Every structure is written in C-alpha cells, then in structure tokens.
C-alpha cells in the first residue's frame, strides 16, 4: 500500500510581496486622505480665528465711535486738542464716553482713545487721564494683524468727505481746532494681506445740533484747575481721574 503523503502548503514569496504592495497602496491612500482632512481643518480654524479677530476689531471701533463725546483735552504739553483729531494715513484720536468703572476708581467715565497703524497691525491706544501730564503713557492693544494700509475720511456738515479733521478751513491754530465739533461720520479703510480691502462707515453717536450748539461758547473746554465729574476734566498734572 502506498502511503498518501500530505504536503504542508503556505504562501509563496510572490504572494507575500503582492499582499504587502496592496497594503502599502491602501496605507498611502489613507494617509493622503487624512493629511488632506487635517490641512482643511487647520485652514478652517485659521479662517475662523481671523474672522473672530476682524469682528472684535470692528466691534471695538464701532463701540468707540458710537460713544464719542465732544470733549476737548489737553495733551502732554498742556495744549488744547479737539474732541476728534485725525488725518488720512495717520492716527485718529478722540474722546469717548461710557467707560465702565465697576471698581469705583477715582476717575472719569470719559476716555481718550486713538487708532493707528504700527508694524503691520491696527493698534488701539487709551489714556487713563483726559488732560494728560508730561509722563502720561497710553495703554496699547493690538486689534488686527497683517494690515498693510490704513486710511481715514470724515464727513462734514455739507455731506462732503474730508481727509483730515479739523479741516484747515475751520481751524488754523490748536485753540481754534479745540472748538471744532466732531464730524457727522467717519470712514475707515483697511488693506489686509489675506482679506483685501475692508471699508467701514461709522455714524458718530453724537447729536449734531447738541454737538455744534449755537456758538463757540457751547463747546465744552477742559478747565486747568478744577475737576468736574460730568465732563471728566482734570488738571494736566493731577491723577484724580
């Protein structure tokens, strides 16, 4: 009788190579899909962060201009400055109200703020004192990055746009400029690297008739020696605000 011989069968080298090649192809496809998903997620998160940054900058601009107050101030040298100062391709500085004081600190609810372009970023500056001393320094906060250009325009009573405020027609000296009321509106144009040109138009939260009054005597002027809680005025060397 012949014995039946059972051979142990297995995979050949060629079959193993083919299987490994198939797994390698699927792994490459899976990695490519995962990498694309991760890159898409990162770009979406970056876009969301950029949009949130832009929205915060817009809200800060809007809130400041809506709270604008017709209150001239004294600068670090004791000179009178208008309630709003600005020029195209330069900084805009103005007085705003509604500055919250939850800690009941000895200061006014009015605040002097400024916006400018510095090192490719939109920067907001604020001063604790309206009428500043020589050593008064602002607090700077960066609102928006990757800004390449910043321009301002101001709407006067004749509904004409001006590139500076106060205009040369209304004031030639700092004393005259201090008596010029704020404009009716402000337009800001931002050029960014990724979003292109952005243009915002703000209506100032100020009654035009109340702001302009009937004469120069109706324009509030900071007093050099007294402090009034309503107007937020202080002497230039006092820290009572």
Walk me through what this model shows.
The chain has a domain at 54-218: Pili subunits. It is built from three helices and twelve strands; from the N terminus they run αββββββββββαββα. The chain has helices at residues 13-66, 174-178, 208-212, and strands spanning 73-74, 80-81, 84-87, 92-96, 111-118, 121-127, 139-145, 147-155, 161-162, 164-165, 185-192, 196-203. The strands form three sheets. The protein has a six-stranded antiparallel beta sheet with strand order 7-6-5-4-3-10, with helices on one face. A four-stranded antiparallel beta sheet has the order 9-8-11-12, covered by helices on one side. It has a two-stranded antiparallel ribbon with strand order 1-2. A hairpin with a 4-residue loop joins β3 (84-87) and β4.
Essential attributes:
241 residues; alpha+beta; Pili subunits; 6-stranded antiparallel beta sheet; 4-stranded antiparallel beta sheet
Write the layout of secondary structure elements.
Blueprint: H1 13-66, E1 73-74, E2 80-81, E3 84-87, E4 92-96, E5 111-118, E6 121-127, E7 139-145, E8 147-155, E9 161-162, E10 164-165, H2 174-178, E11 185-192, E12 196-203, H3 208-212
Antiparallel strand pairs: 1-2, 3-4, 3-10, 4-5, 5-6, 6-7, 8-9, 8-11, 11-12
């Amino acid at each position: 009788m012949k014995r039946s011989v059972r051979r142990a069968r297995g995979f050949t080298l060629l079959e193993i190579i083919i299987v490994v090649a198939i797994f390698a192809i699927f792994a490459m496809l899976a990695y490519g899909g995962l990498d694309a998903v991760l890159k898409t997620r990162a770009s979406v998160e970056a876009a969301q962060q950029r949009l949130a940054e832009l929205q915060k900058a817009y809200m800060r601009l809007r809130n400041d201009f809506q709270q604008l107050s017709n209150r001239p101030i004294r600068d670090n040298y004791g000179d009178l400055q208008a309630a709003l100062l600005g020029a195209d391709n330069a900084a805009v500085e103005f007085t705003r109200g509604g500055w919250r004081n939850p800690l009941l600190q000895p200061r006014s609810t009015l605040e002097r703020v400024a916006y400018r372009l510095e090192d490719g970023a939109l920067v907001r500056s604020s001063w604790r004192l309206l009428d500043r001393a020589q050593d008064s320094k602002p607090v700077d906060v960066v609102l928006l990055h990757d800004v390449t250009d910043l321009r301002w325009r101001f709407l006067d009573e004749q509904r004409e746009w001006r590139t500076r405020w106060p205009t040369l027609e209304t004031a030639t000296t700092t004393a005259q400029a201090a008596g010029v009321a704020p404009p009716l509106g402000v337009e800001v144009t931002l050029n960014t690297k990724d979003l292109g040109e952005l243009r915002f138009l703000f209506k100032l939260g100020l009654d035009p008739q109340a702001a302009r009054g009937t004469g120069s005597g109706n324009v509030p002027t900071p007093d050099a020696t007294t402090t009034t809680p309503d107007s937020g005025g202080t002497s230039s060397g006092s820290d009572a605000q």
